[in-house]
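Appendix B, example 12.
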Amino acid sequence: MGKAYSVDLREKVIDLVKNKKWPVTKVSTTMNIGRTTIYHWLKREDLTPITPPGRPCSFHHLEGLRDYLIEHPKALGPELCRHFNITTNVLYPSLKKLGYSFKKKHYGMSKPRQESKLYS
């Protein structure tokens, strides 16, 4: 999701359209703002950015997670999710905040190949 336009910019755009009588298309191309966005601003009374519904997905017990990982260094993701009653969508960004990397299991890896003596 992109960054919200500032309130000052929104007010300037609305001023150009309402008071200076610029066409929305001209303002749109000049300011590099979508026409639909300008039409939405024209319908609104309050030009402050609207925050999306819901709450950000975050985990507030990072210290507890760090302590648990110190005590259980080989704990896997599903075990951590069950212990803290969270989903993987919350767990992995929290681990990243703590500076932990994700170790990948390498299934089916064979031993390093040895040189064949037939072709030497």
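The two ends are 59 Å apart (CA to CA). Residues 62-98 form one domain.
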